[in-house]
Amino acid sequence: MARKIVVLGEVRDGALRNVSFEAVAAAKAAAEGGEVVGILIGDSVHALGADLIHYGADRVVTVESDKLNQYTSDGYSQALMAVIDAEKPEGLVFGHTSLGKDLAPKIAAKLDSGLISDVTSLEQAGGNLVFTRPIYSGKAFEKKIVTDGLIFATIRPNNISPLDKDETRTGEVSSLSVDVKDLRTIIKEVVRKATEGVDLSEAKVVIAGGRGVKSEEGFEPLKELATLLNGAVGASRGACDADYCDYSLQIGQTGKVVTPDLYIACGISGAIQHLAGMSNSKVIVAINKDPEANIFKVADYGIVGDLFEVVPMLTEEFKKIVVNA
Amino acid sequence: MNIYVLMKRTFDTEEKITISGGQINEDGAEFIINPYDEYAIEEAIQVRDAQGGEVTVVSVGTEETEKQLRTALAMGADKAVLINTEDDLDYGDQFTTAKILSEFLKDKEADLIIAGNVAIDGGSGQVGPRVAELLNIPYVTTITKLEIDGSNVTVVRDVEGDSEVIETTLPLLVTAQQGLNEPRYPSLPGIMKAKKKPLDELELDDLDLDEDDVEAKTKTIEIYLPPQKEAGKVLEGELADQVKELVNLLHTEAKVI
C-alpha cells in the first residue's frame, strides 16, 4: 500500500545529520512506493534540500524564518503543522535525537496519533508495517504495529542504513511561508560542553571509561584514542558517580543507549545496568585488569591489562592504520 | 505553588529480563520508582520547600503501584493519586497514558508538572510532552536545573551533552534528566508519616473517560530477547603483541576500523 511519508531533516552545524539520511531510508521502506517528502526547518536551510533528495527523498519542503534559527518545540511545531496541513501525509519519520524526542510526542498529541519511538528496524510482515524497538534499554525488544491513524516513528541513529547517495537524483525543493509566533520558551544561551566533535549517540566508535579510569585526568588517553578514531567518549555510571566526568557521558539503563560499530570499554566491570546501554554495539572490546570482570562475557575481544598501559599503545597502533587509510 | 509529579512504577535496573508466555516475566522481580521520576519527585519537594505549596504524585497503574506511591509520600510528597486501569484496560500505549493524565490534570490548575524524561522500561519518553500539549502549556525536556522567580522560570536543558539555558513561564511541564538533583532516601519518620498521607484511587469512570476514549493507537505484537552474546576472544601473550593483534583483528576480521 503506497503511502506518502514526510521526513524531518535535522541540521547541525550547517549540515544534515546522518540520522536524517537514515530516516529517509526508513521513510522509503514505510512509503512502499509512495512519495517521500523531506522537511527542513531553520533560518537558512534551502540549500540542504538537494542532499535529502540525493539520499532518496522525492522532493523537499522548507520552512525558513529567523525565529527558527534554533530549535524550540513551539516554533518547530508551528512550521511542521503547516507542512502537514499542506501535504496531508499518511506517515511521519523523525530521528530519535534530542530534537526528535522533544518534538515528536507534541506533534503526535496534536495529530491525536500514536508514535513508535526509538525504532531500530522496520519491515513488511503479514500485511503490516512492523517496527522493532528496544525495551528495558535493550535487555529485550518489541515489535509494534500501528492499529489506528497515522504511521509515526522516530528512528534510533546508527541502526537503519542510509541509501547510497545518488547525486544525479533531482527533485523539487519548495518553500512554505509560516508566520512563527508566540514562542513560549526562549533559548538564552547554549553552552557547548563535553560533546565537542562527535555526538555520543551517533558516533561510530565509542571509547568508554569506568571506575578504572580513576580520575578526571584518567579520561585523557581515552579522549586521545576517540579523537584519532573520530569517535566519542562515554562512561559508566561508576565513573559519573565518582565525578570523573559529566553525567551527559553516562551509558547504561540510566543514561544513554549506544550502538556504535566499535565499543571499547576501558576499566569498566560490566554491571547489568551498563550492559543494557551498550551490548547491542556491533563489536565490543574490553580492557580490564580483572580477568573475571563481567564485561568480558559480552566482549568480542578482550585484553586483560592496565588500561593506562593498553590504551596509549592502542592509539599508537591505530595511528599506523588510520594514517595509511 | 501547586505541583504535580507524573510517576511510573518500573522494573529495578538490576533485574535480568526473562520472557514467559510472550510477556516480560514479572514473577519475583523487584519494582521501583522509575529512576528519572525519582529526580522529578525530589525536585518537586525542593521547589515546594522553597516556595511553599503542595506536591501531588500521580501514577497510571495498578493496585501494586500503591507501594511506589507510598515511597514517594515517604520522600516528602504531600498527596498521591493512583489512576487504576487494571479493570478497564488490557493494553495501553503512550497515547492512552497521556490522555488519562491530561484528563485528570485539566482542572487541577497545576503551576508546575514534573515528570521523568523517560521510563527505563518502555523507553519512549512521550508522556511528558504529550501531556503538556494536551493541557496547552509549555514544556522543556531533559532538564538539569530549575530556577523559579515568581512566574518566570529559567531551566537548563541537556541537549546531547550540550546545555541550553531556557527562559519560560509557569504553568510549565518539565522532564527530569540525570544530574538535576540527588534524590533523598525516605527517612523512618517519613515512612511513618506517609502511612497517614492521602492516597486516592481513581478509575477511568471518575475521569469521565471510557475505554474507547483512550484506546491505544499502536499495539505490541511480539516481545523477544536479543540473541545471547557469546563471550569472545581474550587475547594472550605479551601486551604489545596483544595490542597489535587486536588492531589487526578490528581492521581485517571485524572490519570496523
Automatic annotation (TrEMBL), chain A:
- The organism sits in which domain of life? Bacteria
Q: Which organism is it from?
A: Cytobacillus eiseniae
Q: PANTHER family from the xrefs?
A: ELECTRON TRANSFER FLAVOPROTEIN ALPHA (PTHR43153), ELECTRON TRANSFER FLAVOPROTEIN SUBUNIT ALPHA, MITOCHONDRIAL (PTHR43153:SF1)
This protein's UniProt keywords: Electron transport, FAD, Flavoprotein, Transport
**Domain named Electron transfer flavoprotein alpha/beta-subunit N-terminal: which ranges?**
5-195
**Pfam families documented for this protein:** ETF, ETF_alpha
Q: Which family does it belong to?
A: Belongs to the ETF alpha-subunit/FixB family.
Protein's name in the database = Electron transfer flavoprotein alpha subunit
Q: Which InterPro entries match?
A: DHS-like_NAD/FAD-binding_dom, ETF_a/b_N, ETF_a/FixB, ETF_alpha_N, ETF_asu_C, ETF_asu_C_CS, Rossmann-like_a/b/a_fold
From TrEMBL, chain B:
Q: Which cofactor does it need?
A: AMP
Q: Which organism is it from?
A: Cytobacillus eiseniae
Q: Which SUPFAM superfamilies match?
A: Adenine nucleotide alpha hydrolases-like (SSF52402)
Residue stretches making up the Electron transfer flavoprotein alpha/beta-subunit N-terminal domain: 21-211
Instruction: Summarize the protein's role.
Output: The electron transfer flavoprotein serves as a specific electron acceptor for other dehydrogenases. It transfers the electrons to the main respiratory chain via ETF-ubiquinone oxidoreductase (ETF dehydrogenase).
Subunit details: Heterodimer of an alpha and a beta subunit.
The molecule here is called Electron transfer flavoprotein subunit beta
Checking Gene3D superfamilies in the record gives: HUPs
What PROSITE patterns does this protein's entry cite?
ETF_BETA
Family matches, as Pfam families: ETF
Q: Which UniProt keywords apply?
A: Electron transport, Transport
InterPro entries according to UniProt: ET-Flavoprotein_bsu_CS, ETF_a/b_N, ETF_b, ETF_beta_N, Rossmann-like_a/b/a_fold
Which domain of life does the protein's organism represent? Bacteria
Q: Please state which protein family the record places this protein in.
A: Belongs to the ETF beta-subunit/FixA family.
The record's annotation in PANTHER family points to: ELECTRON TRANSFER FLAVOPROTEIN BETA-SUBUNIT, ELECTRON TRANSFER FLAVOPROTEIN SUBUNIT BETA
